[in-house]
Automatic annotation (TrEMBL):
GO cellular component: cytoplasm
CDD domains assigned: LKR_SDH_like
Domain of life from the UniProt record: Eukaryota
Organism field: Castanea mollissima (Chinese chestnut)
Coiled-coil zones: none
Protein name in the entry: Saccharopine dehydrogenase (NAD(+), L-glutamate-forming)
Length: 1187
């Protein structure tokens, strides 16, 4: 069965709340239909899904994309799930992938492992699938943090109510109560707005949230916290919030309402201090000797905490964050702590009194420290505690989508694999068992099971986390030699080497007679004489080398070495070089002074590539990845190779920071000189070790709010559209009405840095007005025709947004390509821009055009509907799209029921463009002069109050080709929306001559006739000097001249003419040379929005789909957005719906979510899926319906 390409998806049975799935219907569709070869391109032939009535995706959704629904998975070679299945569900001679936890050797999971081995199952554990840089590829951490904090805020409102305080938190639901993560975030933003407007009761302020840890779980929780109006403070600043000195026993509440909450992220340095008061905190020493440190969290931090959000990893050898006795003492002193959200669900762990798990439907218990009692209610004394162990399933849809996005990239390899040898390294390492036996990396499990120790391997030890040692703790008297062996990623990971540090390091080493480690395909060999060290093959070892090689002593030849890299570090001057030659084919000095792990120390990954010839054997090491951390060392050390001795530069007070390039360069220079001591020129010898640097992707670096690196975006153009885009980009880390944009729906990727926005305009004053009140924003004067200045500013940013006239985009695009910067525009991609496609690809640049409303959001909504129908093998029979910028009903207070938020000239010209569309198989062409007459009445069923009409919008058939439906849809129509009656009035005005662009004789030679005179001229009235004409006179004249056939239309046109003031005696400015000029002037004056009036954007798609089973469906999608008022200033809906998508496009490029290069439109899933999610989180109302 193995390798037959048939995948089974389990029905989750471990918990009633488990609604996640490893692969969503969309993932299944891509796996089954990619390349048009029935999935052969992906290695997946069929997918069988066990039926489930609680899975977040219905069975029918899987059926629609070609999956089979069956309880019987016996035909499947690979079975995937999220959590471990029931034992009786495991079939023999198959491959299974799920979170098994069996590698941790916990007793409760051993029956599962025994079943796996007995049934000769190949077991792949998601938790062990690790990328090249030590980061787990499949994880739900951020979703746990997001759901955990939302759930706690939900309970916090109830707890405060029981204490007599009404707070905005009371209106927040639990995470699972919302249909999406975006909706949950919108709810948090809503309560944040209430806090910012009305404040919090003085009796609970300052409200302080303490976050432990800085991994994905903590980042997810902080992501939700940042949706509230907030300020982050350093732990040392906490006493100042309470208006007290440094005495933690004197917390004091404020007497005024506070309009924000406070957060503080703590690290181990804030939790402990050295017992020796003369010594400063040293992280390396702390991890090696936690017994030398005393806890201080209960004294320095906890007295000021309202909420503790626990997201950190903890082991028993470290001091607790908060013990039962400490919380009891704190509460007697009046500590303001209200609750603990233990998202790690570490029962009896770092927070001792959290002694039980809770559930999604009953997420809290109350601990009363004064009585040392536990209660399952919100009333009474004490603190509320939450410890739910299945939090990510509360956002089952997003969590499944995120998980499947990664899993679907390699699940086909697992489905088609008959053994593990041909799998990529990251999948081989994740295989715990194969063919009834444990794989070599996990042969430690039986030894640990038979051991008396109750130690279980932590999943956090999987990569680069095996040991910590402080050289300063080793005296010359206590050891002779220290050897450190590091095996590279291809040979295994550092998961299972645990040096128990109950005793000092040197005492452990002194008890080791000798130790060595070798690895081969057939056999692993190791020897340790102390029970303080647990060893797994191909891993990191700390050892003392004191005598003869044990294999030589026994007369047994040692196995052939298959190590990827070897590091020997000498701490004295007595290393016998012969010890380094004990039947080793290759000895490499890789790095010196390397202590730490990716989870523990800030710093940089150092990648070393080697080529070495020794004893005639050529060994090429593809890549060794290690984390460099330079502690405060006080001694001088030397390292030896077989060929001689290299001095190691003394490394004193070398802090390694992610942005400290000078210090980093010193480290690299030092390590390079170690590796290449004889290098005196640019010519490299064959035995060279070359170094390059990459930033650490995940560490315990405390991301302080003042230390974040700023990326930059240049916005060209300072019109109305600019401000929403600038506010969106610059609003990272602060609260606003649209705070949720950045945090919304982000995958488990790195948190986006603050964005520095540069707004460039031909006139500096315009740019300065745009950025007023926007943090992280700068105004500059910039003329894009000044190439020197343009290149200067483009070179300083990562992304450029051009909101200039379309004719200027090509100049900006060429500059971006030359400087390798991405570009976003909201304009149509014309031929000149399309011609830059290959040039942009070659430069590695993305030019994202049509990222506005129309074009822009219309593309995204359309392609989402079309692609969803295609996944179900649907055929598009009809596509109609309507879009328009209109006054809100309250502002449609003129005869035309229309106002301009942009130039009337542009709007009038666009209404005179010819149009082409297809209707029921017939292609129709509309002349520009007849466009207004072609308007037809339109009603949208879900918006019956709007009396609308639509006019054909240019060439609709182009979109048939763009969307890939031109060959199948018999109707393709795109129309412009207006209120009913607009077309007939504008057509009448056009026939009268109001839109004529030729110079009019009455306006020549600097003449300044009155508007009344001009009107009478257009109406061909002979009584120029007669009395003021009225609506009735104008109506009769229009009918007489034959400009319209219906009296009612003539009346509407006359009312419009009167409203625009053409009957008045004011003089026409000399700048007006044509009737078109005069009309635009009058419309700009009379049809403008007041400062308090709202405009409105309405976008509506309708798609008719036929399916193979004969079913037909009508799909619709609607966007309705109104202008928004903030701080007394109105931002138009048109500006929002053009500026926000452009800003989102820039963010997606900054985050590298858009990986395709060249000239693009937002018609691909990698663009429109995250963009639509963020638009919804921003507050745009996007609704979809199927009938």
């Amino acid at each position: 069965m193995l390798g037959n390409g048939v995948i089974g998806i389990l029905s989750e049975t471990c918990n009633k709340w488990e609604r996640r799935t490893p692969l969503t219907p969309s993932h299944c569709a891509r796996l089954l239909h990619s390349g048009g070869g029935g999935g052969t391109a992906t290695g997946v032939a069929r997918i069988i899904v066990q039926p489930s009535t609680k899975r977040i995706y219905h069975d029918s959704q899987y059926e629609d994309v070609g999956c089979q629904i069956s309880d019987d998975l016996s035909q499947c070679g690979l079975v995937v799930g999220v959590k471990q299945p029931q034992l009786e569900m495991i079939l023999p001679d198959r491959a299974y992938a799920f979170f098994s936890h069996t590698h941790k050797v916990q007793k409760e999971n051993m029956p599962l492992l025994d079943k796996i081995l007995n049934e000769r199952v190949s077991l792949y554990d998601y938790e062990l699938i690790v990328g090249d840089h030590g980061k787990r590829l499949l994880a739900f951490g951020k979703y746990a943090g997001r759901a955990g904090l939302i759930d706690f805020l939900h309970g916090l409102g109830q707890r405060y109510l029981s204490l007599g305080y009404s707070t905005p938190f009371l209106s927040l639901g639990a995470s699972y109560m919302y249909p999406s993560l975006a909706a949950a975030k919108a709810a948090v933003i809503s309560i944040g707005e209430e806090i910012a407007t009305h404040g919090l009761p003085p009796g609970i302020c300052p409200l302080v949230f303490i976050f432990t840890g800085s991994g994905n779980v903590s980042l997810g929780a902080q992501e939700i916290f940042k949706l509230l109006p907030h300020t982050f403070v350093e732990p040392s600043q906490l006493p100042e919030l309470f208006g007290v000195g440094r005495d933690p026993n004197q917390p004091a509440r404020t007497s005024k309402r506070v309009f924000q909450v406070y957060g503080s992220v703590i690290t181990c340095q804030d939790m402990v201090e050295h017992r020796d008061a003369t010594k400063v905190f040293d992280k390396a020493d702390y991890y090696a000797h936690p017994e030398h440190y005393n806890p201080i969290f209960h004294e320095k931090v906890a007295p000021y905490a309202s909420v503790i959000v626990n997201c950190m990893y903890w082991e028993e050898r470290f001091p607790r964050l908060l013990s039962t006795k400490q919380i009891q003492d704190l509460m007697r002193k009046g500590c303001p702590l209200v609750g603990v959200s233990d998202i790690t669900c570490d029962i009896g762990g770092s927070i001792e009194f959290v002694n039980q798990t809770t559930s999604i439907d009953s997420p809290f218990f109350r601990y009363d420290p004064l009585n040392d009692s536990y209660h399952h209610d919100m009333d009474g004394n004490g603190v509320i505690c939450s410890a739910v162990d299945i939090l990510p399933t509360e956002f089952a849809k997003e969590a499944s989508q995120h998980f499947g996005d990664i899993l679907s990239q390699f699940v086909g390899l697992l489905a088609s694999a008959t053994d593990t040898t041909n799998l990529p390294a990251h999948l081989r390492r994740a295989c715990i068992a194969h063919g009834g036996a444990l794989t070599s990396l996990y042969e430690y499990i039986p030894r640990m099971r038979s051991s008396d120790s109750d130690f279980s391997v932590s999943p956090r030890l999987f990569f680069y986390r095996s040991w910590q040692v402080s050289l300063s703790s080793l005296s010359d008297q206590s050891r002779r030699y220290l050897a450190v062996v590091i095996v590279g990623a291809a040979a295994g990971s550092c998961r299972s080497v645990i040096c128990q540090v109950g005793r000092s390091v040197h005492s452990v080493i002194s008890q080791l007679a000798c130790l060595a480690l070798f690895s081969s395909v057939q056999r692993q060999w190791s020897l340790a004489t102390a029970d303080h060290l647990l060893i797994a093959p191909r891993l990191c070892i700390i050892a003392s080398v004191t005598g003869t090689h044990p294999a030589e002593a026994s007369g047994t030849p040692p196995p052939r070495v298959n190590l990827q890299a070897l590091l020997w570090l000498e701490c004295t001057l007595h290393l016998d070089a012969t010890l380094l030659q004990l039947h080793l084919d290759t000895v490499l000095l890789a790095l010196a002074l390397v202590f730490g792990c990716a989870r523990t120390y800030p710093g940089f990954f150092l990648y070393a590539k080697f080529e070495k010839i020794y004893k005639g054997i050529f060994l090429k090491i593809p890549e060794l990845t290690v984390l460099v951390y330079i502690p405060d060392l006080t001694g001088r050390f030397k390292a030896k190779t077989v060929g001689g001795t290299m001095p190691i530069r003394r490394a004193v007070h070398w802090p390694v920071g992610a942005d400290d390039r000078v210090v980093l360069d010193q480290i690299i220079d030092s390590l390079t000189s170690i590796a290449n001591p004889n290098e005196t020129s640019g010519n490299q010898e064959k035995n060279k070790m070359s170094l390059k640097v990459g930033k650490v992707q995940e560490s315990d670096i405390k991301k302080g709010h003042n230390s974040e690196r700023k990326t930059a975006v240049l916005i060209l153009g300072a019109g109305r559209v600019c401000q929403p885009a600038a506010e969106l980009l610059a609003s990272s880390g602060r609260f606003s009405s649209h705070q949720g944009y950045k945090a919304c729906l982000e995958d488990d990727s790195e948190e986006q840095d603050d964005v520095q926005v540069i707004v460039g305009s031909l006139y500096l004053k315009d740019a300065e007005e745009i950025i007023e009140g926007i943090p992280n924003a700068t105004a500059i004067q910039l003329d894009v025709m000044d190439h020197e200045n343009l290149f200067k500013y483009v070179s300083q940013v990562e992304v450029v947004i051009s909101l200039l006239p379309a004719s200027c985009h090509i100049i900006v695009a060429n500059a971006c390509i030359e400087l390798k910067k991405h570009l976003v525009t909201a304009s149509y991609v014309d031929e000149s821009m399309s011609m830059l496609n290959e040039k942009a690809k070659s430069a590695g640049v993305t030019i994202l055009g049509e990222m506005g409303l129309d074009p822009g959001i219309d593309h995204m909504m359309a392609m989402k509907m079309i692609n969803e129908a295609r996944v179900r093998k649907g055929i598009i029979r009809s596509f109609t799209s309507y879009c328009g910028g209109l006054p809100s009903p309250a502002a449609a207070n003129n005869p035309l029921a229309y106002k301009f938020s942009w130039s009337p000239a542009g709007a009038i010209r666009s209404g005179r463009n010819p149009a082409t569309y297809r209707s029921h198989g017939e292609t129709l062409h509309i002349d520009g002069d007849s466009l207004y007459d072609s308007a037809v009445r339109l009603r949208i069923p879900d918006l019956p109050a709007f009396a609308l009409e639509c006019l054909p919008n240019r060439n609709s058939l182009v979109y048939g080709e763009l969307y890939g439906i031109g060959h199948e849809a018999s109707t393709i129509f795109r129309g412009t929306l207006r209120y009913e009656g607009f077309g007939e009035i504008m057509a009448t005005l056009a026939r009268i001559g109001f839109f004529d662009t030729e110079a009019h004789p009455i306006l020549k030679d600097g003449k300044k006739p009155t508007f009344r005179t001009f009107l009478l001229e257009l109406l061909k009235s002979e009584d120029v000097d007669g009395p003021l004409i009225a609506e009735k006179d104008i109506t009769e004249r229009i009918v007489t001249l034959g400009h319209c056939k219906e009296q009612g239309t003539a009346v509407k046109a006359a009312k419009t003419i009167i409203f625009l003031g053409f009957h008045e005696d004011g003089e026409i400015p000399a700048s007006c040379q044509s009737a078109f000029d005069v009309t635009c002037l009058r419309m700009e004056e009379r049809l403008a929005y007041s400062s308090t009036e709202q405009d409105m954007v309405l976008l509506h798609h309708e798609v008719e789909v036929d399916f193979p089973d004969g079913l037909s469906e009508n799909h619709s999608a609607t966007l309705l957005e109104f202008g928004r008022t903030k701080n007394g200033k109105m931002t138009t809906a048109m500006a929002l719906t053009v500026g926000i998508p452009a800003g989102i496009g820039a963010l997606l490029l900054l985050e590298n979510k858009i990986k395709t290069r060249g000239v693009l439109r937002p018609i691909e899933p990698e663009i429109y899926e995250p963009a639509l999610d963020r638009l919804e989180a921003y507050g745009f109302k996007l609704t979809e319906k199927i009938q």
